[in-house]
Every structure is written in structure tokens, then in C-alpha cells.
Amino acid sequence: MREVNPRKNNTKMLLTSFLLSLFLVVVIAVLKIALTAFLSVIWLIIPFTIVIFIILKSRDEFL
User: What is the pLDDT of residue 51?
Assistant: First the structure.
């Protein structure tokens, strides 16, 4: 009689677990690098906002 619900091979399960954990570690590393890059330039938001506001305000006065 054929087995209806065959068990997966232990090696295949181990390889699948390893690849999934490797993928998760890579995703976490990329997110950490992206967060570090964002936090290193976040201080530029306020100066850029002020400069853009001044440009828009002066353009509005001249129009």
C-alpha cells in the first residue's frame, strides 16, 4: 500500500531550514544597513525643509 502522507527526508528538511534561516538573516542585515543609512542622513531633513520652504515662499512672492 502506498503511503498517503510520506515523510520528508531529514536532509531535505535540514537544507530547507538552513536556506530559510539564511534568507532571514540576509533580510535582517539589509534592513539594518538601510536603517543605519537612513539614520545617518535624517538630520538633513530639517535644513532641506527650511531651504525648500524659503525657495517656495520667495517664488510665491515674485509671482
Answer: 94
The Cα–Cα gap between 35 and 32 comes to 5
Sign of CA dihedral 13, 16, 18, 20: negative
CA angle in degrees (0–180, nearest 5) for 18-23-25: 95
Q: Report residue 55 as a C-alpha cell.
A: 525657495
CA–CA separation, 54 vs 42, rounded Å? 20
Residue 9 is predicted with a pLDDT of: 78
- pLDDT (0 to 100) of residue 2: 59
Cell 527650511 found at? 50
Indicate the DSSP class of residue 6.
P
